Amino acid sequence: xxxxxxxxxxxxxxxxxxxxxxxxxxxxxxxxxxxxxxxxxxxxxxxxxxxxxxxxxxxxxxxxxxxxxxxxxxxxxxxxxxxxxxxxxxxxxxxxxxxxxxxxxxxxxxxxxxxxxxxxxxxxxxxxxxxxxxxxxxxxxxxxxxxxxxxxxxxxxxxxxxxxxxxxxxxxxxxxxxxxxxxxxxxxxxxxxxxxxxxxxxxxxxxxxxxxxxxxxxxxxxxxxxxxxxxxxxxxxxxxxxxxxxxxxxxxxxxxxxxxxxxxxxxxxxxxxxxxxxxxxxxxxxxxxxxxxxxxxxxxxxxxxxxxxxxxxxxxxxxxxxxxxxxxxxxxxxxxxxxxxxxxxxxxxxxxxxxxxxxxxxxxxxxxxxxxxxxxxxxxxxxxxxxxxxxxxx
Length: 394
Ligand SMILES: NC(=O)c1ccc[n+]([C@@H]2O[C@H](COP(=O)([O-])OP(=O)(O)OC[C@H]3O[C@@H](n4cnc5c(N)ncnc54)[C@H](O)[C@@H]3O)[C@@H](O)[C@H]2O)c1
Hints:
Layout: E1 12-13, H1 15-23, E2 28-31, E3 38-40, E4 44-45, H2 48-53, H3 65-68, E5 76-79, H4 84-95, E6 101-104, H5 107-113, E7 118-120, E8 133-137, H6 142-153, E9 157-162, H7 165-179, E10 183-187, H8 193-206, E11 213-216, H9 231-256, E12 262-267, H10 280-300, E13 305-312, H11 318-327, H12 332-344, H13 354-365, E14 376-379
Parallel strand pairs: 1-6, 2-4, 2-5, 5-6, 8-9, 8-11, 9-10, 11-12, 12-13, 13-14
Antiparallel strand pairs: 3-7
Helix pairs in contact: 6-7, 6-13, 8-9, 9-10
């Protein structure tokens, strides 16, 4: 059996000849680079990885109908940066049965040297989410709200999902007013599969079935060791932080597969990576978030779906404020001392800000991170790796 790409191309063609063929309207130009800052006007983009993955599949399943539906006997020209990748891409296309596949000699470098005009696909470094749609669960508060706000600011149609219709709609209206973005709120208790499916169906109806980004942020916490944690605590934490994430990943992947791509970002925790004092049940769930992230990335890389997670240390959100107020009623000094203790846990001697976690969620959602999948990114003021750092006295 031949390896993908083993078949030989049908020769080379100069950039000037390519341009003449395009102008005559009788050729399909395919750019096989995985990252494309500039390209031949009118060419079809097909990453080499996508082509290789599809080498054994029927062409009808290929991402771009411009390639799948193109007559196999009509001419094709393949280009890339310098010409080398084009040879591999051309070989794969020959394996698919294309009969007349030429390589553009010297790739895009030669195209530019010949004074031919390039189009620019993406404003690299802009971290733009324009044209994308994003679901953020638990986005009525804290980190989720900061992520939804930044996504809306960067141009994504953003869907805020949270426990009640009232909180989701109010947060969406607030974010829309702040950013000028298109933001919609829906009720969705992530621990309930039927609610997740209903909310995703509403989002899909609004975004033309094109869900690009899913952030699984909704989560709850619990304080306790194995001795002070009860079975009911385990079930409650599991139902939101594990089952809830599972329900949403499943609904998200089902929605993304037909589009041959998507991006899933899960909120893990430093408690996913090592033991945090008195976080037995919480750590159990966040460890599962980490491994669900890896499993999804592994199973669905072939579908163009990326899956990553973020592991924050303590972040100053309403959740932390609520914990402090409940723990120190009528005791502002006790509350302040605990706040300081929680802050100096981080080597940077402060808690993170929700917007600092949102910045990582933006990177992972944007095309700038296109080569990242199956990873956990810490946003932790040095907790994980600056083990030996000196902290201020409490
Ligand atoms: N704040 C931190 O220090 C910290 C650190 C590491 C990880 N995290 C993780 O980040 C995420 C967000 O934390 P936060 O501090 O912003 O919390 P938060 O309590 O401020 O906000 C969580 C949001 O999730 C919603 N929510 C809770 N249960 C839900 C459910 N079943 N269905 C839908 N929505 C639900 C809440 O209504 C709330 O709006 C969580 O997954 C948390 O575990 C937080």
